[in-house]
Amino acid sequence: MNKFAILCIKFYQNYISKILPKSCRYYPSCSEYAIWQFKNNNIFLASFAVLMRILKCNQLFKGGIDYPVVGKKFTSISLSKQDKVADIEFWLVPCKNSKFYVIKVLDSLRGKH
Predict the structure, then answer these.
(1) Strand pairing partners for 65?
(2) C-alpha–C-alpha distance, residues 64 and 54, integer Å
(3) SS in 3 state form for the chain?
(4) Are the beta carbons of 70 and 99 closer than 8 angstroms?
(5) Is the distance from CB of 83 to CB of 7 less than 8 angstroms?
(6) Is residue 31 a contact partner of residue 17, using CB atoms and an 8 Å limit?
(7) What is the distance between the alpha carbons of residues 56 and 48, in angstroms, rounded to a whole number?
(8) Which residue, 40, 27, 34, 29, is CA-closest to 90?
């Protein structure tokens, strides 16, 4: 379900939003926020968070920077010398308890080590 939601959002970004004026009051934009939510949360939590974000994206709210907050539980892992290093797509910055801000790595910075 999450992949289908992401495909719908990508369709909106590529075809519909290009013909509409830019009107999002937040960074990341509401559609990017939605993609990040669906990649890091289950369908119900992501849908609720996206709905709340879209309802806040109007003149009655100040806007600004509003990164998604997701819940994650981590288990310890050990890396051996044979393991390959994976590209980091998102940084999870601790917020409170087991909640984290999701911050996307800029595509222009990938591959530059």
Answers:
(1) 27
(2) 14
(3) CHHHHHHHHHHHHHHHHHHCCCCCCEECCHHHHHHHHHHHCCHHHHHHHHHHHHHHCCCCCCCEECCCEEECCCCCCCCCCCCCCCCCCEEEEEEECCEEEEEECCHHHCCCC
(4) yes
(5) no
(6) yes
(7) 12
(8) 40
Q: 11-30, pLDDT tens digit by residue? A: 998 999 889 888 888 888 89
Which residues fall within 8 angstroms of residue 50, CB to CB, at 6 or more apart?
30, 33, 34, 37, 38
pTM score, whole prediction: 0.70
Structure tokens at 1: 């379900």
* Cα 45 to Cα 36: distance, rounded to the nearest angstrom: 12
In this structure, what token pair is assigned to residue 47?
Answer: 């849908």
